[in-house]
Specification:
The complex is a heterodimer of chains A (319) and B (333). Chain A has helices spanning 3-17, 79-90, 112-121, 148-151, 154-157, 185-191, 195-206, 214-218, 243-255, 266-270, 278-292; strands at residues 23-29, 36-41, 50-51, 73-77, 99-103, 125-131, 134-139, 142-147, 169-170. By secondary structure, chain A is of the alpha/beta class. The termini of chain A are far apart. The mean pLDDT of chain A is 92. Chain B is α/β, with parallel strands linked by helices and 333 residues long. Chain B is 34% helix and 19% strand. Chain B has helices at 10-20, 92-105, 112-119, 168-173, 182-198, 208-214, 220-225, 233-237, 280-299, 309-313, 320-332; strands spanning 2-6, 22-27, 34-37, 64-71, 74-77, 85-90, 121-126, 152-156, 160-165, 244-249, 254-259. In chain B, the strands form two sheets. A seven-stranded mixed sheet of chain B has the order 1-9-8-7-6-2-3. In chain B, strands 5-4-11-10 form a four-stranded antiparallel sheet, with no helix packed on it. Classes of the chains: A alpha/beta (319), B alpha/beta (333).
């Protein structure tokens, strides 16, 4: 057991013991290799179930809007999860007072699809563990070693702020690597393509969609009670898995994230068809940064540019 | 009757089938392996160890299916398919699922499209010599070489397949293939037994229906569903989930049916606004109980074939094997 897991267990047990929170949301060991399960700990003695490693693929902040309003929640947060918490607080989805943010360092999430594919083709993963910068996969016939960067989730490779912001408790320090990563590489690569190729790339991804909405449900900032796609009178987009239906879903889903996406990549990790979609939300984030100097989720009181209005707005942009 | 199909000879056999029928098989083009129509340049990827991620049920009830077109005030029926089909490389769990769904679509109030596609389709099964870690067919009354529902069951012998003929249709498909030797049959049976005994039984199914009925109003379901995101991965990838929603696509002038999922909030939302399954608790209970209680009630069999897709692909690792195990221990307490 790692030091971090140990610290998480101790603090979770303490917070429950002291009555500071009603539940601690973290992760526990999964039933299959490469996986972890979100865990909801309500008794101090259950805290021993908590673990933390690079296989914790979900954004735990997505549970905040699913829990009872009255519950006081302790939540284990990496950088992206803390940003999602700030977005939810700034959008009045949760009172900050009812939350206790336990910040943890993050070395990135391992994209299980990069490893798991092997199991569908040939060899099954029996066990997997991390040794420093290496990920070791025991297969039912042999062993495979990966450098962490090879199997890291794309969103984590582009992550500028793995360090949690504004946590109530920070379990370890990690340098912010904002300056050292190329955040917009995927956006630049996509934008440099001629329009026809861009569309072809988009269509190739979107048309694999089976409309299970795992991307929406895994997203901490997708919390509408009724999603536009579920509205049936009038219907906003085609219901089918046709090009019309899947294109509309992917474009509109992304646009609803303008100034709100925390770039955690939970949508792509949840997708059973391995559809790339963060290049769309990253582009919106790029525009937010360039045009408004805004980055989603950096504090509790920042209003996203598209959610801001003033009564004396002169509307000078209208001609 | 046991026949032998060499791996070298398989493409020729497939070509022979293609003269009469459209042939589908798992195809791997570098992405996610899936069932595709074999044509020029697409090869059957029977070497794949695991199952396709997207279930072949889509070949019988496609995810979005047009029921009829509106032409002015007239309605134009979509003609039922006529071409015979062969689906090669179907795993036992998926073939079994198709058979279970015959009980839903193929009986009293039969579904013309389903029945027609079933009539015109031969299934050539491929047994699993190396079942995966998330497979549990043998726990739900089946097994890696369960031949119910297939016309032929193949066993991979290395350089050839032993083909166990199950039906007259299967016999026709293998016409002209050499008869297997006793040694080949024995070798195949050894592989089959080794595969079956390599599988762990993750839970007992004895009396599971009554265990779940007993838990119907229990807080068990609240506990189980806490991590569930309410997406449709488990149900859409499930080979036995078969719910659909009928939609009038007015702009296309079509009435279509799309797969639907009991895990979606709007699935049970009524026109009045009332929702009899208002939270994820009732919806999770519905999914599990449909397979392990209601299906047993209605069809006398468990409505899960243990393919493991829901286990493998759930975004939060909500493992149905664990749910059934936990239900049992919860009921005992």
């Amino acid at each position: 057991m790692g030091e971090l897991t140990q610290a998480i267990r101790e603090h979770a047990a303490r917070l429950l013991q002291e009555g500071r929170v009603d539940v601690v949301i973290g992760f526990k060991t999964g039933t299959v290799p490469l996986r972890a399960q979100p865990a909801f700990i309500t008794e101090p003695e259950q805290a021993a179930e908590l673990v933390h490693n690079s296989f914790c693929q979900n954004n735990l902040a997505s549970y905040l809007t699913r829990r009872p309003d009255t519950e006081r929640i302790g939540i284990i947060c990496r950088g992206c999860e803390s940003r999602a918490v700030h977005v939810l607080v700034s959008e009045h989805q949760h009172d900050r007072e009812g939350l206790y943010v336990i910040g943890v360092p993050c070395a990135g999430i391992i994209d299980r699809h990069k490893i798991e594919r092997q199991g569908e083709l040939d060899l099954e993963t029996v066990e997997v563990w991390e040794e420093g910068e290496e990920v070791i996969v025991a297969l039912d016939d042999g062993e495979q070693r990966y450098a962490r960067a090879e199997v890291l989730d794309d969103a984590c490779l582009r992550c500028a702020h793995p360090q949690p912001t504004d946590a109530d408790l920070l379990l370890a320090d990690l340098p912010d690597n904002g300056a050292s990563v190329d955040r917009w590489a995927a956006v630049d690569a996509f934008e440099s393509l001629p329009p026809a190729e861009r569309f072809a790339r988009f269509a190739q991804e979107a048309e694999r969609c089976i409309r299970c909405y795992a991307c929406r449900e895994a997203c901490p900032t997708c919390y509408c009670t009724e999603c536009f796609v579920d509205h049936n009178n009038p219907r906003w987009c085609e219901s089918m898995v046709t090009a019309g239906g899947t294109h509309a879903w992917h474009v509109i889903r992304a646009f609803h994230q303008a100034g709100r996406c925390v770039s955690c990549g939970a949508c792509e990790r949840a997708c059973p068809m391995e559809i790339k979609m963060t290049y769309l939300t990253d582009k919106l984030n790029y525009d937010m940064a360039q045009q408004y100097g805004f980055e989603p989720g950096m504090s509790d009181d920042a209003t996203p540019p598209f959610a801001a209005f003033t009564l004396d707005d002169a509307d000078r942009f209208v001609r | 009757m046991h026949k032998i199909v060499t791996k070298k000879g398989l493409p020729t056999l497939i070509e022979a089938w293609q003269r009469q029928a459209v042939v589908y098989a798992p195809v791997h083009n570098g992405g996610i392996p899936e069932f595709q129509r074999l044509g020029r340049g697409t090869q059957a990827a029977l070497y794949l160890r695991g199952n396709t991620r997207y279930p072949p049920k889509s070949l019988f009830i496609s995810q979005s299916e047009t029921m009829f077109y509106a032409q002015g005030t007239a309605l134009e029926q979509v003609p039922l398919p006529t071409a015979p089909r062969v689906i090669l490389g179907v795993r036992a769990c998926d073939a079994r699922a198709t058979q279970l769904l015959d009980g839903v679509f193929g009986t009293d109030s039969s579904d013309p499209s389903w029945v027609r596609k079933r009539e015109r389709t031969a299934l050539v099964g491929l047994g699993c010599t190396k079942p995966g870690a998330t497979c549990f067919c043998s726990a739900v009354g089946s097994g890696p070489f369960d031949a119910r529902g297939v016309d032929v069951m193949l066993t991979d012998l290395g350089d050839a397949y032993l083909a166990e003929v199950q039906t007259d249709e299967g016999e026709t498909l293998l016409e002209g293939m050499p008869v297997a030797t006793q040694a080949q049959v024995e070798a195949a049976h050894q592989l089959q037994e080794a595969a079956a005994s390599s599988m762990e039984i993750p839970f007992e199914t004895e009396g599971i229906r009554d265990v779940l009925y007993g838990l119907f109003s229990s807080s068990f379901w609240y506990e189980v569903q806490q991590s569930c995101l309410g997406c449709g991965v488990c149900t859409f990838l499930c080979p036995t989930c078969h719910c659909f929603d009928i939609v009038d696509e007015v702009q296309r002038r079509e009435r279509v049916r799309n797969w639907d999922s009991c895990m979606f909030r709007i699935y049970s939302q009524e026109a009045s606004g009332y929702n009899p399954r208002p939270t994820n608790v009732e919806r999770t209970r519905q999914r599990i109980m449909h397979k392990y209680a209601y299906f047993v009630e209605n069809h006398g069999e468990i409505g899960c074939t243990g393919c493991g897709r829901c286990v493998r692909n759930c975004p939060v690792d909500l493992d149905i094997r664990q749910v059934i195990r936990d239900a049992r221990s919860w009921a005992e307490e």
